[in-house]
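In the current project phase, the collection of sequences with tokenised folds has grown. A representative record is quoted in full directly below:
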Amino acid sequence: MNAPWQRLLTFAVSGLQQPIPQDPISECSSHDYAELRRRASDLFALADEKLHTFPFKDVKPCWFRLYTDASIALALDIIDRIVDSESSDPGLEYIDEIVSTLDMALIMAGGVGREDLIGRMLENVNSALQQDEPEVSPLAKRPRLVQGKHSSKAPRQVLSTDQISVPTLSHPISRCKTPSLALFEKHMNEQRQPLILEGTMEHWPALQRWKLIPYWLHQTIQGRRLVPIEIGRSYTDDDWGQKIVPFKKFLDDFILPKPEDSDQSSQDRQTGYLAQHNLLQQIPSLRNDIAIPDYCYLDAPGPEPGTPVALSKARQSGEKDKHDHPTSDTADNSTSKDTDVEDLGSDIQMNIWFGPAWTISPLHHDPYHNILCQVVGKKYLRLYAPQHSKSLFPRPKDEPAPHISQKEFSNKFNGTDTAAETIDMSNTSEIDVAAMETSPHEDWDEVYPGISQVPYVECILEAGQALYIPVGWWHYVRSCSVGISVSFWW
């Protein structure tokens, strides 16, 4: 009855015993496989202490390796208990513990050196669970919908498409249907303007699959996979924070409507957002649902001379050993707004943004070109050219972020630098565009002198559409519904 778990155990043991060439783990621990299994708890505690004691950039690679291998060893201990038990039911608490242990290795340490092993272990856990619980069918036939509504007794099968506060556009962004590579490259180099791309996502399976709640539950082992989420309206707010929670809790608490929600406005409810996270790497099967736009493989032009990104890059051109990753989302709430610029020709970086209506990214700019692909729902975006930066009230470079204590925690799973006591927020504007949206008849020139004279462009980005955002363009983003987006930085 425990055959699937025995197969998982055999596979995982073999994988963990496989040596890694020039493994840095030897710098921190001289243990062999037998000692790792015997002292898994102690070795994990040691590695965990190191990850939480030093700034991220100062943690030796060996501690990430030890954290990863010790986590796998702890998971093997649990699988051992399942295999040795006489019951055919492994116990859901065992499953939860295995998944959370392995996911924390991915989130906290990147699963370094064992990414494929952890991914396959989690796939096998999902398969074993399906065999133990055959009644759980993630892609089961959906109950018939009546006039577009789901039965009050049946679980919701499709993400809500209810729209909130969709504005009328005054300065719409230009759009183009499936431009050729040559045409898009010319636009990047000559027009250097935002552009809505239509028809570039028509072949994405995600357009259909990601609307289905059972699909997400299946991909996340019935919602057990852990995800880092942001709590709060905006990363510029004092009460902004972060948590790591099971996907099902994120879904239930923030995405799926509840009866009591009807008594609160969308702006009054607490917002939870799965943002600025490479979920496609954490759950590789989701990667099959999307495709990197061909445009991202083009050589992108550098930032325009004299703009903040260009000046920042010039200041840093002499620095070496820069290993920061982009830390602001170009679609939604951000876990960090660091203006540090690494090589603009680095690999394409993908992130997913999944949240309810009224998730907000305050007005900010990023040091990369980006194609933002809307998969589910709608978003409103307002963009300002980098030449108007001085008129957009950028925050002082040395201004402490309101959420500095939360930021230090966030960096632990985003791979960013925690050494500084303040965060460079100069690529974030002091302008509260959300307030300007909700109170359009106020005289905002009294609050932000001259803001009414600064030109901008805007759009409603709908499912199946992509938006090209040139490097350095200031942008504000607000979700008009439950939404899922994928951004591609290059």
About this structure: The first helix runs from residue 3 to 17. Residues 134-151, 320-345, 404-421 have pLDDT under 50 and may be disordered. The chain has two domains: 1-131, 175-258+268-299+346-412+420-489.
